[in-house]
Amino acid sequence: MSKSDTHISRYRELALVLLALLFLTLLSVLITELHFGALSVFVALTVASVKVFIVLLYFMHLKFESLLLRLLVGMVFVLYGLIIIVTFIDYFFR
Amino acid sequence: MFSGASNMVEGVDRAFAVIFGIAIVFIIGISAFMIYTVIKYRRSKGHEAKQFRGSLKLEILWTIIPLALVMLMFYYGWIGFAPMRKVPPDAMKIVAIGRMWEWEFDYGDGRMSPELVIPVNKPVRIDLKSEDVNHSLFIPAFRVKEDVVPGYNNFLWFTPYYVGEYDILCTEYCGLLHSSMTSKTRVMSQEDFDIWLDQLAEAAAIPVPEGLILLRNTGCLACHSVDGSKLVGPSFKGYWGSERVITENGVETSITADEAYTLKSIYDPNSQVVKGFSPGLMQSYTDVVSEEDALKMIEYLKELAGEI
Amino acid sequence: MNNQPGDGYISYLDYQGKHRGILSWLLSTDHKRIGLMYLYAVIIFFFVAAFLGLAMRIEKMAPGPDIMDAQTYNGIFTIHGVIMVFIIVIPGISAIFGNFFLPIMIGARDVAFPKLNLFSWYLYITGAVLGVLSQFAGDGPPDTGWTFYVPYSAESATNVIYALTAAFILGFSSILTGLNFIVTIHRMRAPGMTWFRMPLFPWSLYATAWIQVLATPIVGITLLMVIAERTLNIGFFDPALGGDPLLFQHLFWIYSHPAVYIMILPAMGIVTEIFPTFSQKPVFGYGAIVISSIAIAAVGYFVWGHHMFTSGMSYWSRWFFSFLTFIVAIPSAIKVFNWVSTMYGGAIDLKPPLLYAISFIFLFMIGGFTGLALGSLATNVHLHDTDFVVAHFHYIIFGGMGFAFFAGIHYWYPKIYGRMYSNRIANIAWGILFAGFNLLYFPLFIIGIQGMPRRYFDYLPQFTTGQVISSIGAFILISGLILMTANLIYHRKRGAIAPANPWKGVTLEWLIPSPPPHENFVEIPEIKHKPYLFAKTEPKE
Amino acid sequence: MSTVHSHSEPQDHAADKLGMWLFLFTELFLFGGLFLVYAVFRSQHSVSFHNAADELNAFTGTLNTVVLLVSSMTVAMSITAVRYGERRKAMLLIGVTLILALVFMINKYFEWSHKFHYDLYPGSEVMMNMEHGEILFFGLYYMMTGLHALHVLVGMVLLTITLVKVQRKRITVERYHLLENSALYWHLVDLIWIFLFPLLYLVT
Ligand code: HEA
Ligand code: HEA
Ligand code: CUA
Ligand SMILES: [Cu+2]
Predict the structure, then answer these.
(1) Cα C397 to middle of ligand 1, angstroms
(2) pTM value?
(3) Three-class SS of residue B22?
(4) In DSSP terms, which residues pair with B146 in a beta bridge?
């Protein structure tokens, strides 16, 4: 049996995760109220990324999955990032 | 083909030579090696197969050598290409307009020409504008090509070296008559060019009939010529007032080309199809051409038939 | 090993499951039967598309309209491209040979999700039929080219939506096959078969499957956006509404360049199996071939822009994409060198499969090097969208993937049907095919360099010679193709009975009877050594 | 499948899970394509995007975010419940998830119909007269939220199936992987919304 089959997330744990996510949501809403200009996109996306990270780790149980699965998920996000960057080589330097 | 008709030819052709040179060596070499192996080690001669599994040295060797060679190819491709993006500031500017399915070259001040006419030994910059879909301006002899994309300000430039005539082709698929979207480049001496440009200016001074402009901008002229040549649809020359043999609801009848018939042909083209043409080639222009514009077009058709 | 025909042996062809007759095929979740169903479907569509190719060649026998008008021609090359790319070569080898042999070669009884496998066959058929339907329904055959470039594809009055939807569904089928293979390879290898004891055809399928899973969705959403553009008037790509036609090209090629490696990687996998068997010698540089497959898949992801060099991309994009295009040629080069070295020093038996495999290398080299000419910035400006490109990809897809497919079918035919074909006829057919092929496509390189654009219904008189030679080649090619197919079909029931291992192969599929029993293995074998072990003892390296 | 030896090996949970994750990857890339389009258009029309985003109701957006986050937690908890053998609790939690999904859809419905009310939909007169950047923004808005809503619907179907299976004791302490996979799917729906929310509603 692998780690993922033995680990059961506890209710409290999940509730705390939710609290953290709600807090981050509140944070991003408040921050955009402040109008940082160009920076606000960046901040909003960072907060969103943190939230996604938390969802992946706890709700989607990745923290307790095999190394392989974690690597694959990481790889997919990296690949997507690279695609964006490569596309923007065109748009930024036009 | 390697005649050097423009300043771009040398860089491009050098890259060709490098790539094809290396390619030929490898293709012949590897093929010869394969044939040699197949003959030398054929089973019927009773060889024992030698059981080896690889060699790190060789793997490294044949990673490094091709790497070096492709970098060489890349380098030649790059330096052949780099000048294509560096337009000399004194280049003469011409706007090329691509529309389904013809080219038009705008020399400014309403001077329009269906052919690209340029003075020899002078850099020209051609700005590429599309009025509808993607096209691509290609002059093989000059080794230049760039897509004409709506909404983008693409360009190309070159310096022609010899007086002469060269083909212009459209190399981005643009629909029905993509393959007839051709034109000519005429390279002439500076004096001839000046004369030609003056003539063009005079032509520009004569007002173009409004109906003709409408016909052109709506794209009608892509399928209907005004000089009698047969394109996708019947020509406009000698059209007005002529007897047309048409098929309506499967029955052949004859009808005179008057205002009612012409309007019907614009708004409901498939109901009365001229003999010799298939239905379905033309769509209705109901929301595209207003009644008012259609009448102006008809005015021009009358003019073409010498009625006015 | 206890895998020879015993008392209870029934081949998968005769096996009786829950259903009888045709239903025992249409509802079968047996990977072998699904593989064969793909084979038959692909062959049918293939002949349709090959015939359309011939029609184009006939049209081009002389300048001006000959047997069709421009609209028809445009429709024909579109559907020719769509069928060939989306229905034949992208699913082709993975779905046919991958389904049939992947589980056997890794010592499994089936793929990981047999029902999903059958489902993706149905998706495939739905998509394929929809694609063919686009020819007949409604407003006439789509005429956009297989690349569906906007704005034209958003404006054309023809059945573009059918073709787009077809491609979308086919993409989904391809994703599901890829997903299935990845899980199969991860979870179902026989005991003792570590990653580096796995044969190379499964390795190539593994690399391919990742591209299928990770690249196809992008084209899926892109096609959906074009559909939305056509039906809902959303202006993503329409410059009149602020949209960006070049963005479409980016999105399209983000998938469609990796897609060309979906086509070629399994083909490379097949010939990698053939060279050791017919040389009776381990494959040369196993590790290098594995790594190069993965490298092609990974780097191949980032070269899509080489299809857009003349579209007005930024200078640095052109630079970057050209550079990576050259890098991605290296793993292909490594593979070629390893294949020829595998033959070196072997005991070579020049049977039809090897003949096809060797001609694969030859044609692939020509296709590959002309690919390099296209990948170089200066020369691409001249060659882009000319017949040179057409010649390049026919050499590499049909000369490469096509000939590898032929090699594969001649190699595995005895295993699939338990019968032998006629070697002599196979050799003759090969000769005709090979000659016809070169006659058909080589002239296109030359007229391409001279400036003959592609997708041209008509052409300038100076290109006549090349076009005519090419058209003659098409007839020769087709006759070779017919001869080859006839040989295979005729001997399917009438050929000599094939032994379990006619070529003395050593991968797992040769250890079981021909044709394989329903469950593949009576007893799952345990793998104790490296793959491609031909001699009892191997000298130390 | 048939009698003696069948193709269905004993259930391989790791295989199911890997398969599900691979499927999620394809979903991510499906939306990824749209995010790429968004990124490009935003970089070209940042001002119009700013103005257009202002017209969206950030409150509705936030509300829906909260709804989805909570539903994500309940579905995660339902796995815990099943694995502790608390069947009723699990059914309750899945039920709550479904209700929250419904709330999300209703909210979405009102949001969309509000826009339709002002003739703000692709191809409408109002939209065609906007600035280019705004047309693109709303085009993307409809495409992205529409596709997302479609996924919510699929997720609801999946969850309903699992609910029935839990009730019929087909999903049990040992065999809970269907639930786990549906939950993964549901989290994905949430995950995409986490990105959509700031990009569409907040970036003003
Ligand atoms: C199976 C499909 C397949 C494969 C494998 C390839 C492989 C390659 N392709 Fe091709 N390509 C297509 C299918 C394919 N292509 C299609 C369908 C199109 C047209 C699409 C359309 O517009 O309709 C196209 C178009 C196309 C273009 C765009 C042309 C244009 O429209 O302007 C380019 C440009 O870079 C290109 C490059 C390459 C390169 C560099 C490789 C390389 O991977 C090749 C590598 C191989 C070798 C290099 C040969 C073997 C190596 C040796 C013999 C060893 C020695 C090597 C060295 C010393 C380097 N291809
Ligand atoms: C797999 C890809 C494939 C194949 C096999 C072919 C086969 C043929 N092609 Fe193909 N062709 C394309 C893919 C292919 N084509 C594409 C993508 C385009 C571009 C479309 C566009 O511009 O949008 C194109 C365009 C194209 C043009 C250019 C149109 C133009 O630009 O004006 C022409 C012109 O003659 C042509 C001719 C032919 C002919 C005569 C054949 C055949 O008739 C030759 C006969 C074939 C064979 C003898 C066997 C090949 C066997 C296999 C590939 C294995 C199949 C697998 C199984 C049977 C299981 N094709
Ligand atoms: Cu204009 Cu092709
Ligand atoms: Cu490519």
Answers:
(1) 9
(2) 0.91
(3) helix
(4) B137
Calculate how far, in angstroms, residue C53's C-alpha sits from the geometric centre of ligand 2.
Answer: 6
Structural domain spans, chain D: 2-201
Fold that domain D2-201 belongs to in CATH: Four Helix Bundle (Hemerythrin (Met), subunit A) (1.20.120)
Query: Which overall architecture, per CATH, does domain B210-304 show?
Result: Orthogonal Bundle (1.10)
Query: Treating both helix axes as pointing N-terminal to C-terminal, what angle do D87-117 and D177-197 enclose, rounded to 10 degrees?
Result: 30
Outline which parts of chain B fall under CATH 1.10.760.10.
210-304
Q: Return the percentage of chain C with pLDDT > 90, whole number.
A: 66
CB contact set of D129 (below 8 Å; sequence gap of 6+): none
The tens digit of pLDDT for each residue in B92-101 reads 999 999 988 8
What is the pLDDT confidence band of residue D11, given thresholds at 50, 70 and 90? low
Which of C256, C316, C317, C319 is best to mutate for the A interface (most A CBs within 10 A)? C317
Pocket test for ligand 2, best of C45, C46, C59, C84 (most atoms within 8 A of CB): C84
What per-residue confidence (pLDDT) applies to C541? 43
Q: Is any ligand 2 atom within 6 A of the Cβ of residue C260?
A: no
C385 lines ligand 1 (CB under 6 A): yes
3-state secondary structure C322-382: HHHHHHHHHHHHHHHHHHHHHHCCCCECCCHHHHHHHHHHHHHHHHHHHHHHHHCHHHHHH
Yes or no, beta carbons of A88 and D43 under 8 Å apart: yes
Provide the ipTM.
0.91
So what CATH class is B92-205?
Answer: mainly beta
pLDDT band at C290 (very low <50, low <70, confident <90, very high): very high
Q: Which atom of ligand 3 is nearest to the CA of B179?
A: 2
| Pick from B19, B37, B71: CB nearest C379 | B19
Given CB atoms, is A57 within the 8 Å cutoff of chain D? no
Q: Is-contact C499 C164, C-beta < 8 A? A: no
Query: Atom 59 of ligand 1 has which residue's CA nearest to it?
Result: B66
Chain D neighbors of A1, CB-CB under 8 A: none
Which residue is closest to C174 within chain D, CA to CA? D26
Residues of chain B with CATH 2.60.40.420: 92-205
Q: Which CATH number fits domain C23-511: 1.10.510.10, 1.20.210.10, 3.30.360.10, 3.30.450.50?
A: 1.20.210.10
What is the whole-number distance in angstroms between the Cα of residue B214 and the centre of ligand 3? 21
Q: What is the signed CA dihedral for B45, B48, B49, B50, rounded to 10 degrees?
A: -130
B256-287 pLDDT, tens digit per residue, is 888 888 888 888 887 787 877 766 667 777 77
Chains that touch C (3 or more CB pairs under 8 A): A, B, D
- DSSP code of C196? G
Kindly tell me the burial class for residue C43, based on how many C-beta atoms sit within 10 Å of its own C-beta (0-12, 13-18, 19 or more). Answer: middle
The answer to whether the Cβ–Cβ distance between B23 and C369 falls below 8 Å is yes
Cβ neighbours of residue C404 under 8 Å, at least 6 residues apart? C93, C267, C268, C270, C271, C356, C357, C360
pLDDT higher than threshold 60 for residue D7? no
For residue C175, the distance in angstroms to the closest alpha carbon of chain D comes to: 8
Q: Where are the domains of chain C?
A: 23-511
Residue C476: what pLDDT?
Answer: 94
pLDDT, tens digit (0-9, with 9 covering 90-100), for C222-235: 999 999 888 887 88
- Give the chains touching B; criterion: ≥3 Cβ pairs < 8 Å: C
Nearest to C520 by CA among C114, C91, C95: C114
pLDDT 10s digits, B99-112? 888 899 999 888 88
Tens-place pLDDT, residues B2-18? 558 899 999 999 999 99
Q: What is the pLDDT of residue B21?
A: 95
Query: Which residues of chain D does C215 touch, with a Cβ-Cβ cutoff of 8 Å?
Result: 29
Strand partners, B186: B117, B165
* DSSP character at residue C83: I
Contact C315 A91 (CB under 8 A): no
> Cα(C372) to centroid of ligand 1, in Å?
6
